[in-house]
Design a protein that fits this description.
Low-confidence stretches: none
Order of helices and strands: EHEHHEHHEHEHEEHHEH
Helix content: 25-40%
Strand order of the largest sheet: 1-2-3-4-5-6-7-8
Largest sheet: 8 strands, parallel, barrel
Mean pLDDT: 92
Strand content: 15-25%
Shape: globular
């Protein structure tokens, strides 16, 4: 099965017919069966938030929750917890509503570009998996060193041995801080794909204030999306369930691209939230 969705549900204006819609997640869930919770990256969310989001979505809806930035080394300063053990403990507690409702697809550990392939980094990845216990976790690298020709097989084998879900990236090839398209599943049950766009000229930080907005400013055309029909078919030989998230939303393109991908694949999802009719 292929589940297609977006990274976050708040910034996709084409989905919402009324301005300032308060029930955006419910409306979102009438279009897509899965979403990435990106707010969890910025702060460990209180259980009341995840309980609310679970209530607002259909029984079959799935959440992919980003790991907190302190867990992936993005903070580059002291973590706001007494210990790393406590940080992971608090994070796992925040996941309980998803787990109880059987709506947790996986946790996404997306590491920063300066997280390079070193023995220390490998030890930390092993420690992270131990801390997360049996919770399914996806791993996304953002530095080419992990997939250099000399270590690519070893990286994928390590992910298999440690039971990491591979987060496959579609992104521009813009130097060491981008990763190649590696169409390999590391777990039989699940694989994640994240579509970041292919804006090669805006990918790297050039000191501009709006860099992050430009980074994901890209609209896939039908030819580029059609390439993925073949890629997905190949991946399905090696993994049962594929989650495909569109992250190219700087210009509001993610929702349209995701819907078009669903059309190209001929998918009709059952169990979505009912569509809300508007008088206007």
């Amino acid at each position: 099965m292929i589940y297609i969705g977006l990274t976050g549900w708040g910034d996709h204006d084409s989905l919402y017919t009324r301005p300032n819609t308060k029930n955006k997640l419910s409306v979102y869930a009438s279009h897509f069966p899965v979403v990435e919770v990106d707010t969890a990256f910025y702060a460990i969310q209180p259980e009341s938030n995840s309980e609310k989001w679970v209530r607002e979505t259909p029984d079959s809806f799935q959440f992919i929750v980003k790991a907190y930035q302190g867990m992936t080394g993005h903070l580059q300063r002291d973590i706001p917890f007494d210990s790393w053990d406590e940080m992971f403990k608090k994070y796992k507690e925040s996941l309980q509503p998803y787990i109880r409702a059987n709506k947790l697809a996986m946790i996404l550990f997306q590491f920063p570009p300066f997280f390079t392939c070193t023995p220390k980094a490998i030890r930390y990845l092993r420690w992270c998996k131990q801390q997360m216990e049996d919770i399914p976790c996806a791993l996304e690298f953002r530095h080419q060193s992990w997939f250099a020709p000399s270590v690519r097989k070893e990286t994928l084998q390590f992910m298999k041995e440690e039971n990491w879900i591979h987060s496959i990236c579609d992104e521009p090839q813009a130097g060491s801080t981008s990763v190649p398209l590696v169409l390999k599943a590391t777990r039989k049950d699940k694989t994640l794909i994240r579509m970041h766009g292919r804006n090669i000229h805006g990918w790297n930080n050039q000191g501009k204030k709006n860099w992050r907005d430009v980074r994901y400013l890209y609209r896939y055309n039908d030819q580029e999306l059609s390439e993925w029909i073949r890629y997905l078919s190949e991946l399905q030989k090696h993994t049962n369930t594929i989650y495909m998230l569109f992250n190219n939303n700087s210009g509001g393109d993610a929702a349209d691209n995701a819907k078009r991908m669903i059309e190209l694949l001929g998918i009709e999802y059952k169990g979505l939230a009912p569509r809300q009719l508007s008088l206007f």
